[in-house]
Amino acid sequence: MQVHAVFVPPNPTALAARRDRALASVQLTADELHDRVTQGKALPDEREAWEEVDAVNFLLDSLAE
Amino acid sequence: VTFDLQSAATAFGEEMQSLLDGVLPYQKGTDPVLRQVAVTAGNLAFVVEIGTRTGGQAQVIPLLTSGKKTAELFVQLRLVADSAHQFPAVAKSKFELRVDRLPLLRLDFARDAHSVPGCHWNVHAERGAVTRLLAKNNPAHSGDLSKVHLPVGGFRMRPCLEDFLQLLVYEFKFDAEAGAQQVIDDGRVKWRGRQLAAMVRDDPETAARVLRDQLGYHVSAPESGPVAARVDRLTAW
After folding, report:
1. What is the average pLDDT value for chain B, to the nearest integer?
2. C-alpha closest to that of B237 among B109, B106, B124
């Protein structure tokens, strides 16, 4: 079975919840997480959490423009 | 979000879904929806990723060897409206080959990168000679090969997802769908056509000269005069 791409409309509340889930999963603030990634100290779950936070922030910034 | 831009972003996602599905087989026993391409909208910006609609967070695509997962592919792109707010343009992309959640190879692109090549490979491997050389010549560098940014020709000539997929299928020999090469070739032709069109806009005088002098086309400058080259694009690392 194959699937079709899906369009997810803008939803700041859902995006913020997604970011909060990612941060809660590693128990770090966004700044702490960013520091660990840029310093090359991030564990796999922290890298994945940062990818979530960074992508969501990109969308939220866009919505705030 | 304008209707056209939303439609274009969705079409972009559908094209990516067709490419991935035409090349990489699904893992038996896993929910196919976890491989669904999701285009999440901001205002005039979009994130294209895998499985977020159902999985809650971006998913990886299992890479299979004889039907068993042996590695993972992570794909994420960010689209923004182009300067005319008519089409989505890729602002950032990330393609990664991972094993046990750790990257082996990364092809990163960021349109606004300045301190590193806009598009580059990172190779997550160790080589003592590289570390020694970096320590000697660039003490500020960590010495990690994975932190070396290998340039690939600027953002116009960068490799496409099709190139990355062919690497996975032909060098690493991950399982592939029958007809994968045709899907890759078709996608690559589309990609290069788009990039070529963008490069013509970057340097129209060179394009016109080649058409006129080498291929016999009748091409003349607009009445307003020749369109200047985008030097920033032509010099981009």
Report:
1. 94
2. B109
pLDDT (0 to 100) of residue A47: 93
Query: Chain A residues with CB inside 8 Å of B26's CB?
Result: 1-2
Q: What is the pLDDT of residue A1?
A: 58
Both structure tokens of B28: 């038996």
What H or E segment, with its residue span, contains residue B63?
A: strand B61-65
Asked whether the beta carbons of residue A52 and residue B58 sit closer than 8 angstroms, the reply is: yes
CA angle centred on A44, ends A38 and A45, rounded to 5°: 100
> What does the alpha-carbon distance between residue A18 and residue B113 come to, in Å, rounded to a whole number?
26
DSSP-assigned beta bridge partners for residue B79? B46, B90
Would you place residue B95 in the very low, low, confident or very high pLDDT band (cuts 50, 70, 90)? very high
Under 8 Å between Cβ of B31 and B10: no
Dist. CA B22–CA B76, nearest whole Å: 18
User: How close, in Å, is residue A46 to chain B by CA atoms?
Assistant: 11
Residue A61's pLDDT band (boundaries 50, 70, 90)? very high
Give the helix, strand, coil percentages of chain B, each rounded to 5: 40, 25, 35
pLDDT, position B2: 56
Decide if B30 contacts B57 (C-beta within 8 A): no
Task: Render pLDDT for B76-85 as a digit per residue (tens, 0 to 9).
Answer: 999 998 776 7
The reply to whether A41 touches chain B by the CB within 8 Å rule is no
Q: Does the pLDDT at position B195 exceed 90?
A: yes
| Residue in the block written with tokens 């190139």 | B163
Q: What is the pLDDT of residue B5?
A: 84
Instruction: Report yes or no: B3 and B9 within 8 Å, Cβ to Cβ.
Output: no
What is the token pair recorded at B212?
């006129």
